[in-house]
Structure of Glutathione S-transferase N-terminal domain-containing protein:
Amino acid sequence: MIRFYFHPTPNPAKIALFLEETGLEYELVPVDTRKGEQHDPAFLAINPNGKVPAIVDTDGPGGKPARVFDSNAILLYLAEKTGRFLGDAEDRPDLLSWLFFIATGVGPFSGQAVHFQHHAPDRLEYAVNRYRREIARHYRVLDLHLAGRDYLVGGGYTIVDMAAWGWIRMASRVLAVQDDPLGPFPNLRRWFLTVDARPAAARARQVGQGHDFKTEIDEAARRALFPSNYPADDPADDPAGA
């Protein structure tokens, strides 16, 4: 059984897609990050970094429970556990390279683009320009790579496609472009529509729909989501907003 700690944001979406693709049995554990539940001691014991997603595999190596955090580490762990979506053996160098390209580039730069365009209290044009242009550069790298190929690694669908899907599906918010944000990247757009049309992707988009997650970004939510913006010695600095 996989215990899946989830909030409806891009990184957990990757894991939802993998679980729905494989049919692995899992228990969904909602973590409402706008309420600060990622800072609860019980969750920090699973992910000391206080981020979602995380999993606990009750049947880990040697039959012992195993925790795994960071979305890309989880994808690699689950793929190795199941022996699925890893590509062929000769694809391993490419798989690791592109997986880490997404982990260190597409993911964090997308997150910063969203933050400075939609959440920063003051619009800093330098930051907005830097992160939006840099993520556009990442998109161009992917677009060029996808010319003449259906998937990101080898000849088939792998965890790299799942990792990229989690963030590319948010392109309109990342680039702050509502009308066909992937239009300038035709190969990336074609690839995204292929992955997004998979039945498992439709199921992944529904994961967590029955839970009443907080939607408001108020002061308590900002403290929960961006605790490093508040002085550690501020007596009002309660990440959970309690």
Remarks:
- Confidence is low (pLDDT under 50) at residues 235-242.
- The chain has ten helices and four strands.
